[in-house]
């Protein structure tokens, strides 16, 4: 099997950016779901406004916002995400009675076609200076974090297009706790001394470049620390003095590597604005099966599944239900491992017409219903179909890059399907 497609979602629930490679962090791909939108509802009694998380399952018009990444080769601080609003035509905005039967109060908020703030293009720094921004609390699936309100410029742009007050939130250095049984275990692989000596812990702090560069960087740091020690070598021969210093630096290097590796493995997994896990993995074979269930219309747009990693070459549809651990890459076999800890239970977002920004029951719009027939295979979420697996990069994978075309091997499988027990999602 191989990776066929990779996606990054800079702003949660907006259209993704298709990429050829992705740098793995503890929170998934770099720049993935670092921003999100919240609907603001003023309190009628003069109290604080209520903020509601915006998900495409409740606000289908989010599909009308496309994103691209503009990266600078000279200065990383100028990297930005560009959001473009593609409103549907007036004809598309006309709700037919057949489709109107599916709509609820959330869906009646159709996108506005006149905008006070002008342009349909918005540029946002991928790593903004958040220290001067107002903090806000974001709670998603009963897991909370502190984010930053990006301010009036960005809030007004989105508010004008949605037709109601909206806040753009930035995650910054904050994280959310993983709840239920999705939290992976990170065992220290004692047989992989090459990984420990290779400073996998230093790599987890995202020191860039080739692994050799990271090792040399760690060695230089240890050398500087050793040279600062008040070591008296007077009276010793030159060879003895050199030997003491060399052995001391090596011992310090190994000790620091082991200590940081243990410390890193003890650290509990965290997530950002992704729902339940840093990565979502799906199989192209399963996507093809889902498409075959839709009798009319074009093939299913796999971006509806909101996946980060698409894997092609699986022999059977939905065999990924039992995948527990994957190895990615041919150059470093076993180095990049993904731990698959839970099922992705689906909602009606699969029925969104991405071009119109609304729910539909035509063509691919009945995909959710078709999957409900035989994909309710999670005993913890009996009324939702399963499609895809939540994944966490193993500690040793953090700092590595995976690419389209990389070989994928299944290292471990489960004998039974995992059971969702995330509070509020399990029922």
From TrEMBL:
The lineage of its organism: Eukaryota, Fungi, Dikarya, Ascomycota, Pezizomycotina. Keywords: Membrane, Transmembrane, Transmembrane helix. The keyword Chaperone does not apply. PANTHER family: MOLYBDOPTERIN COFACTOR SULFURASE MOSC, MOSC DOMAIN PROTEIN (AFU_ORTHOLOGUE AFUA_2G07820). InterPro entries: MoCF_Sase_C, MOCOS_middle, Pyrv_Knase-like_insert_dom_sf. This is MOSC domain-containing protein. Pfam families: MOSC (PF03473), MOSC_N (PF03476). One of its GO terms (molecular function) is catalytic activity. The chain crosses the membrane at residues 235-263. Residues 236-411 form the MOSC domain. It comes from the Eukaryota.
């Amino acid at each position: 099997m191989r990776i066929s497609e990779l996606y990054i979602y800079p702003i949660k629930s907006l259209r993704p950016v298709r990429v050829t490679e992705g740098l793995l962090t503890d929170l998934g791909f770099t720049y993935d779901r670092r921003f999100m939108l919240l609907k603001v509802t003023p309190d009628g009694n003069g109290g604080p406004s209520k903020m509601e998380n915006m998900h495409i399952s409740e606000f289908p018009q989010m599909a009308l916002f496309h994103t691209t990444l503009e990266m600078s080769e000279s200065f990383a601080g100028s990297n930005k995400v560009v959001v473009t609003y593609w409103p549907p035509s007036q004809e598309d905005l006309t709700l037919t009675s057949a489709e109107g039967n599916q709509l609820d109060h959330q869906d009646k908020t159709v996108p506005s076609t006149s905008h006070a703030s002008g342009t349909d293009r918005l540029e946002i720094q991928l790593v903004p200076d958040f220290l001067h921004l107002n903090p806000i609390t974001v709670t998603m699936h009963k897991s909370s974090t502190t984010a930053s309100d990006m301010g009036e410029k960005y809030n007004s742009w989105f508010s004008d297009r949605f037709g109601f007050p909206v806040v753009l939130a930035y995650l910054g250095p904050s994280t959310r706790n993983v709840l239920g049984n999705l939290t992976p275990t990170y065992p220290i692989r004692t047989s992989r001394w090459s990984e420990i000596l290779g400073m996998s812990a230093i790599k987890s702090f995202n020191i860039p470049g080739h692994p050799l560069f990271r090792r040399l960087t760690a060695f230089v740091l240890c050398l500087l620390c050793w040279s600062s020690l008040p070591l008296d070598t007077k009276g010793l021969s030159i060879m003895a003095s050199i030997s003491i210093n060399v052995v001391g630096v090596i011992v310090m290097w190994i000790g620091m590597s082991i200590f940081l590796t243990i410390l890193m493995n003890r650290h509990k997994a965290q997530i950002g604005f992704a729902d339940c896990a840093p990565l979502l993995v799906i199989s192209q074979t399963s996507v093809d099966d889902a498409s075959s269930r839709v009798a009319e219309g074009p093939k299913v747009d796999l971006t509806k599944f909101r996946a980060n990693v698409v894997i092609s070459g699986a022999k059977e549809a939905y065999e990924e239900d039992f995948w527990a651990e994957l190895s990615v890459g041919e150059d470093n076999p076993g180095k990049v491992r993904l731990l698959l800890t839970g099922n992705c239970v689906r909602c009606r977002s699969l029925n969104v017409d991405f071009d119109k920004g609304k729910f539909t029951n035509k063509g691919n719009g009945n995909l959710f219903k078709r999957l409900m027939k035989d994909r309710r295979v999670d005993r913890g979420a009996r009324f939702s179909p399963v499609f895809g697996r939540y994944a966490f990069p193993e500690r040793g994978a953090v700092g590595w890059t995976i690419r389209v075309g990389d070989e994928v091997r299944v290292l471990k499988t489960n004998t039974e399907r995992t059971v969702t027990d995330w509070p509020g999602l399990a029922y």
